[in-house]
Amino acid sequence: MARTCYISFKTEDESYKWFIQNDLGVDMIDRSMDQPVDSTDEEYILRQIRERYLSYSTVTLHLIGTRSAEHLGWNEQRFIKRELQASLYDGENNSRSGILGVVLPSMTTEIFRGEVSCAACGGHHNHVAINDGTVVSEFSYNYYIPNGKCSHTEDERYCVLVGWDAFCAAPEVNIEKAFAKRSHPISEKVKVYGN
Questions:
Q1: Domain boundaries in the chain?
Q2: Distance separating alpha carbons of residues 28 and 170, to the nearest angstrom
Q3: Could you tell me if 33 and 53 are in contact, meaning their C-beta atoms sit under 8 angstroms apart?
Q4: Mapping DSSP to helix (H, G, I), strand (E, B) and coil, where does residue 120 land?
Q5: Which of 43, 138, 17 lies closest to 83 in space, CA to CA?
Q6: Distance CA 12, CA 33 (A)
Q7: pTM of the full structure
Q8: Partners of 6 in the beta sheet?
Q9: What is the mean pLDDT of residues 141-149?
Q10: pLDDT tens digit string along 36-74?
Q11: DSSP 154
Q12: Which of 101, 120, 134, 142 could form a disulfide with 161, with the two C-beta atoms 3.0–4.6 Å apart?
């Protein structure tokens, strides 16, 4: 079943958004948040973003490129942070969206670092660098929801992550994985605001 998606992206990565929309045929809400909501009431802001920009979407695709990092500051990331917060928000007349992070080619080696030895358990884990140097905290926290262990299984993550090539090879399969997280028990541990 096709899911309706909203794409959260930086202007520098707009060509990928157009490719997803035009060449992959993903069912999309084609709106971009370009003006802040004039309020200090966080609940009102998130409700307005859901109504104005994300209405009818069930999965938010977060394109992760070289300008997607938390450490770039609030002013640089305010729209992406708000889009992800509104996607994660689960309130009256609003259901949380699934979140699918799509790692763009420019960030593949920065994020997917390969297998490393773990000092904590002595085993080996795939090192996936999802942190303030690669993504906004709304994504990183909900990808690595604290679990008291040295690694995470897919069932211990709300956000789903995929590389660009794997996403293009099977967009609907990856979107469906993110959609399924909405009713997964891990959704009870979601944090709307990052750090």
A1: 5-189
A2: 16
A3: yes
A4: coil
A5: 138
A6: 15
A7: 0.90
A8: 29, 60
A9: 95
A10: 666 667 777 777 777 776 777 899 999 999 999 999 987
A11: G
A12: 101
